């Protein structure tokens, strides 16, 4: 049931800054903008490129935990605040943990296919720096089965992925695996430094691979991952317009300035069941395979990929899930530079969750914005060269530990 | 943009018990089922009528505040727990405060129109008795703009609607208005006593209208509403299948056992802007008018209505918003018995939010289940006689104070 009954495009992407440690203007004790600010800045950013709120038929907002980080729900109610022409029009909020942004994209795609909308404003947002990291970890544990939380690490999700890394190390060797993780980190930071909205934009440390090689310290953090293996705690929002062909005409955007959605996989796993194999991201594998099959392409047609690297190990495992390397070969594939910006298959070219930042509910939308920028030549200093024979991009967004996954394939418009 | 590009039906509704005070088996200090239980019971209830999970293409779950009541998010992850045949299929959670259930219905409708699904499992759920009512009131305040919360009453939403009632009393007279509120309460409880899943099913008090006339006590609660004017604190879930014509065939259900979706209005107001007129529910008015217009009918074609009576005054104001009475005439219209089960336009025939219960994220779905039961003759002791010349039903579901509204028009299949 993944046939696209009509053409769907994305255009007019916008990112706020990803704010948090690593960013010059971030100070943990000084007042910061609230969630309202991010929704408004990002919504206005997209609307200003497509003729304002009068051109919007529906809106979707992706968010994970405003209920706890900001004590705020009823998020659709913030949409009409962006532009008075959005008053009275349909708005919906979607949630699927760190996969909320991907679900927002899918909701927008469905609205266009349903012909209830020709132009959908799609926003992802999260504002997480409202609490200290250790309390934030408890909040984010709501992406897993909370009943299991007490059995887990104080840093719940780092603990989950540390267990995955530990199983990988044991099976395939600690030293060579660590080199893959360190290179993933280096790529992420190098890419982020080319993107002015990235959280790591101002970071100046030189020997990134040495940092990435740091020995994990299980007494202060988790057993198998160091802090450089982790995505960031971020405040931010991203937005993009999802439109039909008629919608493109209405907003006066040419196809060359848009990307076309040509396939997807949206897959859900049981949050109450532990992963069958810690060294495999099987839901990501399923979603990516469905996405590629529905688009009628293979990984050889992909010019660039944005994948959900909440931890470096998730990046390595996604490389294997996609089939770029066999099980156990992902670390070497990355260590050899194949996923770097000038590599065989450039991944996370504006820094991903580790380099750009991870405002959880926004991340899935941010991935689509990066693909739009790269495929339409708008990525500025972060622009990569895309082989004209590989005009496709892929995003993989994950909520929880391989539970809620959305993979989307895009083509230059 | 509300034309239905293909036919959409609902069938196989199911409600769990609405658990909370008023229910015999409820004991505030004894352990109770968690949110997982409600999702599973309700999902299985619908699946058992339509051939199981193998017939489902997509799922949607509506929930407001599991993040705070249960510290749980990533709710789509609980869908595959219902039935192993749901593993790997798309699932999405939607949020719009107490309007979350209505948003879930709209998401399911869009999936069918988009042809990404022929059969959508749609669930609404909330489990609220995890905290004491006064802390629950703080959690529920997240349905409003939380920044304004400190200016409001400790019981935030009762305070908001008390202000609406106060404005109504001042404009149209306290005594005659109070009679309308008391009759709304009496109808709600009388209807609930006919429905075995209702929270008020076991309540035996006789003189309901006298209770409803109780003088509000601003020292212990709010100024203009008594506790009988309020909906309940409830744990519960409701579910329904949303299907195409092809889907009906696939699940072996005849049209006479389904209801057809023939129109809707989904409207969003700015949560940061105070209501222009406390005595008018203008977003409800807009959504209901759009719903009726898109269905091509008037209020005279409606055989029954489920409307969002989070407080009795919201019921009265909805009567006026729909045009059954002029501004100020709603209280009399209700007091005269016009909205009772044998009245001119029966409303909330299984008790509504005040009598059946208000598991917030489930309520919108519960309303659709009641309309399905009534229009297909499945309401048991609560069954009303519907004039064959009025084969339409309407649901109005509201999130926050007139902020997120979904109104849907249904027709006997």
Please identify the structural class of chain A as seen in this structure: alpha/beta
Number of helices of chain A: 14
Q: Termini of chain A, distance in Å?
A: 23 Å
Question: What number of structural domains do the residues of chain A give?
Answer: 2
Oligomer: homodimer
Low-confidence stretches of chain A: none
> Considering DSSP H and I runs of 4 or more, what fraction of the residues of chain A is helical?
25-40%
With strands numbered from the N-terminus, the spatial order across the biggest sheet of chain A is 3-2-4-5-1-6-9-8-7
Please outline the major beta sheet of chain A: 9 strands, mixed
Question: Which chain pair shows the most residues in contact?
Answer: A-B, 74 and 74 residues
CATH superfamily of the largest domain in chain A, please? Thiolase/Chalcone synthase
CATH topology type of the largest domain in chain A: Peroxisomal Thiolase, Chain A, domain 1
Computed over alpha carbons, the radius of gyration of chain A is 20 Å
Instruction: Based on Cα principal axes, name the global outline of chain A.
Output: globular
Order of helices and strands of chain A: EHEHHEHEHHHHEHEHEHHHHEE
The number of strands of chain A is 9
CATH C-level category of the largest domain in chain A: Alpha Beta
The CATH architecture of the largest domain in chain A is 3-Layer(aba) Sandwich
């Amino acid at each position: 049931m993944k046939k696209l009954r009509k053409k769907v495009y994305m255009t007019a992407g916008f990112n706020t800054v990803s704010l948090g440690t690593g960013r010059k203007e971030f100070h943990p004790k000084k007042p910061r903008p609230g969630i309202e600010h991010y929704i408004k800045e990002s919504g206005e950013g997209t609307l200003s490129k497509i003729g304002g709120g009068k051109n919007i038929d529906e809106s979707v907002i992706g968010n994970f935990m405003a209920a706890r980080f900001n004590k705020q729900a009823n998020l659709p109610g913030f949409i009409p605040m962006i532009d008075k022409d959005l008053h009275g029009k349909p708005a919906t909020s979607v949630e699927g943990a760190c996969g909320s942004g991907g679900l927002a994209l899918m909701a927008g795609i469905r609205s266009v296919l349903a012909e209830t909308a020709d132009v959908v404003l799609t926003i992802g947002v999260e504002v997480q720096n409202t609490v200290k990291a250790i309390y934030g970890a408890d909040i984010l544990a709501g992406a897993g089965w909370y009943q299991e939380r007490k059995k887990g690490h104080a840093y719940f999700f780092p603990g989950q992925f540390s267990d995955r890394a530990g199983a990988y190390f044991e099976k395939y060797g600690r030293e060579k695996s660590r080199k893959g993780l360190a290179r993933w980190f280096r790529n992420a930071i190098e890419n982020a430094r080319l993107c002015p909205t990235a959280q790591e934009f101002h970071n100046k440390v030189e020997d990134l691979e040495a940092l990435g090689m740091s020995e994990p310290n299980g007494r202060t953090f988790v057993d198998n991952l160091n802090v450089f293996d982790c995505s960031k705690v971020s405040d931010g929002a991203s937005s993009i317009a999802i439109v039909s062909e008629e919608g493109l005409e209405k907003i006066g955007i040419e196809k060359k300035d848009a990307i076309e959605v040509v396939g997807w996989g949206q897959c859900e796993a049981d949050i109450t069941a532990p992963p069958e194999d810690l060294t495999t991201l099987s839901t990501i594998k399923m979603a990516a395979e469905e996405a590629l099959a529905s688009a009628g392409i293979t990984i050889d047609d992909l010019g660039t990929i944005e994948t959900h690297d909440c931890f470096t190990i998730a990046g390595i495992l996604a490389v294997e899930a996609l089939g770029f390397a066999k099980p156990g070969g992902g670390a070497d594939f990355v260590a050899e530079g194949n996923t770097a910006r000038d590599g065989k298959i450039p991944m996370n070219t504006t820094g991903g969750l580790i380099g750009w930042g991870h405002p959880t509910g926004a991340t899935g939308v941010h991935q689509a914005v990066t693909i739009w920028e790269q495929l339409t030549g708008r990525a500025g200093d972060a622009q990569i060269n895309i082989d004209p024979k590989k005009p496709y991009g892929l995003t993989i967004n994950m909520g929880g530990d391989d539970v809620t996954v959305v993979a989307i394939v895009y083509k230059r418009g």
